[in-house]
Design brief:
Strands 1-2 form a two-stranded antiparallel sheet. About 55% of the residues lie in helices and about 0% in strands. The protein has helices at about 25-30, 55-70, 80-100, 125-130, 140-150, 155-165, 165-175, 185-190, 200-205, 210-220, 235-255, 260-270, 275-280, 285-295, 300-310, 310-320, 325-335, 345-360, 375-380, 385-405; strands spanning about 5-10, 15. It binds fe (ii) ion (2 copies).
């Protein structure tokens, strides 16, 4: 049985997300809350990979195993999270093949051929950012929103007002707020609001002024990152990875109480923007880094460190610091591949795991052919279990689909 709707406790506290496949443990927990009736989906769950087979199913599973084995080669399958991600990724890849999804394979893009001489490593992130005039300052609307966010005396109306001047941004935010992630809040305030949040002032009431402003900051800078040459990486596929990481980060932050879910969403959305700058400004280095990562079956950030001198996470962190993003958001981006500094482990661990999940599940791609290894200390810091992660993934995937639909209603072009 699969839950057709989110389940709340009688007191309105969120208990289980829509899409959860109910097992014995879930049923016991529902009983404990005296919840004797929940709404379940009419459809049967997709058949398990090993059952209901024909020749096509065998071929689909064989192809899926090959893809997942390669993509997850750096993820420890003995670890509880690695085991869950292996299983879920395999199920997803098999389903996509059985459904004839033409995009099921190869969205990581081709490894650049024709080696050229690799220039010496770059001097510093600052120099690279100086050479990109478009990134010298963030958009006007960003500055207005940031003023509101930094002023402790700012009001709900100030937050709404700062966003209202940019109708396209306002429309995207309203679509984000009218989503399943906020369904429980929307239900909890039912009676005070119509089912759909149709104004920014109401959106502020649902999400909170600071949280809506944080979402607005992140979404307002996206138009600056649209123009990677398509032979590097398809922008839609790149943003699918970013939105997948954002959806995963939001769910992980909410489930583990590590950081604010909206800050985690924005950090996930922007976690790989440094790579867009690399693709544009250091294309010869990146071609060599992609070849090296493919040959070594290693995540791309390690080859970036080797050949460019620093990785995209450090570059992204510098840019967010320069633009005066909230410090914790900047650190989540800067340290998502570098959790050696214990001071920063908690919030960056959310993005680290979210990136692992998004890459392992094949939700888009940002140039990486291999999922990054999961840092065991990060996993421990988050306090999740394998079963807990498995329960979150369907809700993350639903949020990804919904957000991609908001950002790409016609399936074309970047957000
Ligand atoms: Fe990354
Ligand atoms: Fe990533």
């Amino acid at each position: 049985m699969i839950l057709a709707e989110d389940v709340l406790t009688p007191g309105g506290r969120f208990l289980m997300p829509k899409g959860t496949t109910l097992d014995h443990g879930h049923l016991k927990s529902l009983q404990a809350w005296n919840l004797n009736a929940v709404s379940v989906a009419d459809e049967a769950p997709p058949p398990p990979v090993a059952e209901g087979r024909g020749e096509g199913a065998d071929a689909a599973e064989e192809a899926a195993v090959a893809v997942v084995r390669e993509r997850l080669c750096r993820l420890d399958r003995e670890h509880e999270a690695g085991e869950v991600l292996w299983r879920l990724a395999l199920e997803r890849e098999t389903r996509r093949r059985l459904a004839g999804d033409a995009q099921a394979a190869g969205q990581e893009g081709a490894v650049p051929g024709r080696p050229e001489e690799v220039p010496p490593p770059l001097s510093s992130p600052e120099t690279l950012l100086r050479d990109e005039p478009q990134l010298v300052s963030p958009p006007e609307v960003y500055l207005r929103i940031n003023d509101v966010l930094r002023d402790p005396k700012s009001t709900v109306e100030d937050a709404a007002e700062s966003i209202r001047h940019d109708p396209s941004l306002a429309a995207k935010l309203l679509r984000l707020v009218n989503s399943s992630f906020y369904a429980r809040t929307l239900r909890a305030v039912r009676g005070r609001f119509p089912a759909k949040v149709d104004s920014l002032s109401r959106a502020v009431m649902v999400v909170g002024a600071r949280q809506l402003a944080t979402l607005a900051l992140g979404v307002s800078v996206l138009p600056l990152f649209q123009d990677i040459p398509p032979h590097w990486v398809n922008m839609r596929v790149f943003w699918e990875h970013s939105v997948g990481c954002a959806a995963a980060a939001q769910a992980i932050a909410a489930a583990t109480s590590r950081g604010n879910p909206e800050t985690a969403f924005v950090a996930g959305l922007l976690h790989d923007i440094g790579r867009i700058i690399f693709f544009k400004q250091a294309s010869t280095h990146m071609a060599a880094a992609m070849r090296q990562a493919a040959a070594d079956r290693d995540p791309l950030y390690r080859a970036e460190r080797d050949l460019l001198g620093f990785d995209h996470a450090v570059l992204g962190g510098h840019l967010l610091q320069k633009w005066q993003f909230p410090a914790n958001l900047e650190k989540m981006v800067r340290y998502h591949h570098d959790l050696d500094e214990p001071l920063f482990i908690d919030e960056p661990a959310v993005i680290h795991l979210a990136d692992c999940v998004a890459t392992a599940m094949g939700w888009g791609a940002s140039g990486n052919r291999h999922a990054p290894p999961l840092n065991p200390a990060a996993w421990q810091a988050l306090g999740l279990t394998g079963e807990g992660l498995a329960r979150l993934v369907p809700a993350m995937e639903a949020r990804l689909a919904e957000t991609m639909h908001s950002f790409f209603p016609d399936r074309e072009g970047p957000p």
